[in-house]
Specification:
Length: 182
Amino acid sequence: MKTTDETIAAEEPAAEHVEELTPAERHNEALHSIKNHAMTAMGVGILPIPGLDLIALTGVQLSLLRKIGGLYGFTLSDERGKKLLGSVLSGYLPLVIAGPVSSVLKFIPGLGIAAGVLAQSTLAGAATYAVGKLFLQHFESGGTLLDVNTKEMGQKLKEQIQEGKEFLKKHAPGGKKDADAV
C-alpha cells in the first residue's frame, strides 16, 4: 500500500447496502448527495464568524466523502478524510488563498462582511461540488480509496470548481434558474 503525497491509504470496505443499488441508481444517489452538500456548504459560507465557516465546511466535505465512499463500498475515517481533502484542495493555489481570505474579510464591518460572506458562500459550494465530482469520477472509473491520486485530482480541481459555480448558478435558491422563472 503506497502512502505518498499523491496517494493516501483508506479504511476497509464498508458493508453497506452497496449491492442493492444498480450503477445508475448509485450514480444518481451520488449526484443528489453532491448537490445537497454543495447547497449546505453555501449555507456554511454565510456563517458570520471568521474561521468557524472553514471548520464547518470541512465537516460538510467529510460528510460528502463518506456518503460517496459508502455508495461504492468504502468507509472513511475523519483523519484520512481530512488528509484526502487537504491534499486535493491544496492542488489549486487560488483556492488555498481565497478560502481563508474571504473568511478574514468577515472581520471588516459593513462591506467586508458582505464581501466575505458572498465570496465564501460561492467558493464553499463550488469547492464542495468539485470534491464530490472528482471522487465520483474516481470511484466510477474503478478507483478505490487505496489508490486516490490527490495530485491528479488537484490538477483537475480548477475545472471542477468552475463547473460547480455554473451548477450553483442554475440550482441554488436565488440562482439564475430561479431568476429566469420569475
